[in-house]
Automatic annotation (TrEMBL):
Annotated PANTHER family: PROTEIN COFACTOR ASSEMBLY OF COMPLEX C SUBUNIT B CCB3, CHLOROPLASTIC-RELATED (PTHR33219:SF14), YLMG HOMOLOG PROTEIN 2, CHLOROPLASTIC (PTHR33219)
Organism: Limosilactobacillus allomucosae
Presence of keyword Transmembrane: yes
InterPro entries from the UniProt entry: CCB3/YggT (IPR003425)
Keyword S-adenosyl-L-methionine on entry: no
Family membership noted in the UniProt record: Belongs to the YggT family.
Full protein name: YggT family protein
Keywords, ordered alphabetically: Membrane, Transmembrane, Transmembrane helix
Transmembrane spans: 12-29, 56-76
Amino acid sequence: MVAYLAWLINKIIDAYILLIVVWCLLTWFPGAMQSRLGELITKLVQPYLRFFDEHIPPLGGISFAPVVAVFVLYLVQYGIIMLTRMIGY
């Protein structure tokens, strides 16, 4: 059961990382953020990214907050994998 729960959490984190990447790609295209897909992804991703936007200033007009946010999610995934290995599943 623990192994399944860890697997499920990892898959949810993978999907959320994909949403962040898609959101970043949508910001490159004018008008894409005003589409239904853009608005939906923004509602899902922006609360998480807001924390990083507040603490990481943009450099040269480029925000590196999404990169750090994805890195943190990868660290969480790694932590979950290590915990399940320590438990023995």
